[in-house]
Amino acid sequence: MVEKMRAMVLERLAPIETGPLKLKEIERHQIKTPNEILVKIHACGVCRSQLHGIEGDWVKYGIPPALPTIPGHEIVGEIVEIGSKVTKFRPGQRVGISPLHGSCMACDYCRIGKEHLCDAADITGESMLGGYAEYITVSEDFATAIPDSMKSEYAAPLFCAGITAYKAVAAAEPAHGKKVGIFGVGGVGHLAVEFAKINGCRVIGVSRGKNHLDVAKKVGADNVIQYGSDQSEFLSTLKKEEGLLDAAIVFAPSENAVGAAIKSVRKGGTIVLGVLANIPDFDVFSEKTIRGTLIGSRQDMHDVVRLAKEYSIGIVYESHHLEKANDVLVSLKQSKIEARAVLTP
Hints:
The protein is α/β, with parallel strands linked by helices. The chain contains 10 helices and 17 strands. The protein folds into 2 domains: 4-159 and 295-344, Medium-chain alcohol dehydrogenases, catalytic domain (Quinone Oxidoreductase, Chain A, domain 1, Alpha-Beta Complex); 162-292, NAD(P)-binding Rossmann-like Domain (Rossmann fold, 3-Layer(aba) Sandwich), CATH 3.40.50.720. 26% of the residues lie in helices and 27% in strands. Helix 10 (325-333) links the parallel strand 16 (317-321) and strand 17 (340-344).
């Protein structure tokens, strides 16, 4: 008898308000290779990138690569079965799965520990069926152990929002006393505030909404500044309260915000982009550096979990049942999610 599982399946691209994700019973994942593990999902975080994929915003980037599919790429669950050659885990252990579901392990990037840049990487919830479901399989090499002390709903956001924030802060070259602005303090940005504080930075949270500024203060931002559409007004306030920044990290999906971030940084400073955006009005003579950032390696993922435990990082999240995925994504689209939402089967 074929075992079944519940999953929120995307069969067509459409506005999230139309409820394109459908709760279905489909064939449950089965272990197919000796090094795979079968995981019963406890929690899966909800990421804005899924919203872009579901609504068709990223078709030009090949996302999603095929339909039907199951979104979801920040997953925590319990191992219920292991392949014959698995040595790192045993049934009953909890693990997390990030967007990096697998890579070729042989290219130049994989050989130097940057497997997240592998051209043949498999992406959870895109090229591979994702976590808006009850079960998933993954190679033991691309699963990360979860400490017993971590609640699954707490840990799940670490596997995309957490590693994205961690890598973005690292790209900003943090140091004690360095002034870092976080533009867009939502599901990813609030964790970037905390990683920057761990590194001794003075952190300025920047966001349009008061609720997100309140989140920034809650997790330790030294100052917050509200951002409208008027760059001049924002820059005037910033210079008055803080002076120019040493670095800016952008998670706000707005080219206006990207432009403001570039202008907010002193000459020779660094701007890290965690969003897809054109780069407006860049003055090459200011010797500023603009960097992109993309999730992270398996070692980065281990480091994120270690730091979350060591520093008791405060993850602001709310939990919802799996079948409410459409409603949760609508709330995310309308900026009604305080920081991160998590689905539980």
